[in-house]
Write a structure and sequence with these properties.
The protein is of the alpha/beta class and 342 residues long. Helix content is 41%, strand content 19%. The chain folds into 2 domains: 231 residues, 3-Layer(aba) Sandwich (Rossmann fold); 78 residues, no CATH class. A 9-stranded mixed sheet has the order 2-3-4-1-5-6-7-10-11. A two-stranded antiparallel ribbon has the order 8-9. A hairpin with a 2-residue loop joins β3 and β4. Bound molecules: guanosine-5'-diphosphate and magnesium ion. The site of guanosine-5'-diphosphate has 22 residues, from α1 and β8.
């Protein structure tokens, strides 16, 4: 059985923390965060990622820059023993978002259009400099991020595909701490006030954008050394959970609206039971069909009766509510207005 694939793409310049984020995310979630965990689809990828991560955590060796090819990652996201999604993430070079930069630029742009979730990666180190009064060169990187994402949103709209979820991830949040004597919370308030001007996508009518600061710990700036005790990743799982919740909420709404009418005489008194995996697969296969326009119609083993569809909706709804509660209090911009997830 194939669980829904969630395609996630990060948009950010070089050294913004994309590769370190992915490794920290995997290190945290391969050990599990409450009931959620990640498994690499390819066992070798687990070895490679953990080797690089432990080198950083235990020996203080920073990950080397991904200046070669883009790297593909494939993870199963599990909830207890249930597999709930198949995550497809590509770690591009920062230069891929610059149109004229070489062979990976067109691949990157096509990938963005096909993504269920776009993560705009804002470099906390550059944001700090920006806030401290030297806006300079970071503006150009921010502009490129905005242009790439707006182009992808327009292309998706033109193709009649559902909007991707949008996240502004602020990396290296540890470096924002203590800026000009301000607390991290005060600094974040200031950043949130300036964000609509810095990231123009936030102001696009109809856009909903999550703001998510993350950090791998107090590891300092690029030349600084650090110890294992300094490496303490925080909030890495949040972008992932948000992407999943948005996708599930949209699908639940779509499937609820498309439910066949209730029969005059109820078919069965109690809804049929099914595994979470089957519920997820059945409900989201339509979304899979969106992703692959040429794919055949819903396979017979996924077609559900009205009762079964209701049961699947309830089951996936419960999962969605549980995951959503982990995002409470986080900042989102809806149509450019700041609000919080309740
Ligand atoms: N202080 C601090 N530095 C970080 C953090 N995440 C990444 N870095 C550093 O930022 C630099 C660039 O990170 P990297 O993931 O390679 O960036 P990429 O080019 O976007 O993939 C490296 O020196 C990392 O050690 C963080 O949370 N805090
Ligand atoms: Mg990298």
């Amino acid at each position: 059985m194939t669980v829904p694939t969630i395609t996630i793409t990060m948009v950010g310049g070089q050294h913004s923390g994309k590769t370190v984020f992915l490794h920290a995310l995997y290190a945290m979630l391969s050990a599990g965060v409450d009931e959620l965990a990640l498994l690499t689809v390819d066992p070798d990828q687990d070895t490679l990622m953990m080797r690089a991560w432990l080198g950083m955590k235990e020996r203080g060796i920073r990950l080397t820059a991904t200046d070669g090819e883009q790297r593909k990652y494939r993870f199963w996201l599990t909830d207890g023993f249930d597999t709930i999604a198949d995550l497809d993430i590509v770690d591009f070079r920062g230069s891929a978002m610059i149109a004229a930069s070489g062979p990976d630029a067109p691949v990157f742009r096509e990938r963005l259009v096909g993504s269920d979730c776009i993560v705009m990666v804002l470099n906390g180190e550059h944001l700090r400099a920006h806030l401290a009064g030297s806006p300079g060169s970071y503006s150009e990187e921010l502009r490129q991020i905005g242009t790439n994402v707006r182009r992808a949103l327009r292309d998706r709209h033109d193709a009649g595909r559902p909007d991707p979820s949008l996240i502004v991830m602020i990396t290296k949040a540890d470096l924002l701490h203590g800026l000009g004597g301000a607390t991290l919370r005060e600094t974040m308030t200031r950043i949130e006030q300036e964000l609509p001007d810095l990231v123009t996508v936030i102001g696009v009518p109809g856009a909903t954008v999550l703001v998510c600061p993350v950090t791998v710990g107090d590891i300092g700036e690029r030349e600084d050394t650090f110890t294992a005790a300094d490496v303490r990743p925080r909030h890495m799982e949040r972008p992932l959970i948000y992407a999943l919740v948005r996708l599930l909420e949209a699908e639940i709404a779509r499937r609820t609206a498309a439910l066949p009418p209730a029969p005059i005489v109820p078919v069965s008194a109690s809804p049929p039971r099914m595994t979470l995996v089957r519920a997820m697969t059945s409900l989201l296969s339509a979304q899979l069909r969106w992703a692959r326009a040429a794919a055949p119609a819903l396979p017979p083993d996924l077609a559900l009766t009205r009762e079964a569809e209701l049961a699947a909706l309830a089951q996936v709804g419960e999962l969605t509510t549980r995951l959503r509660s982990r995002l409470r209090g986080m900042t989102v911009f809806v149509d450019g207005e700041r609000t919080e997830i309740v």
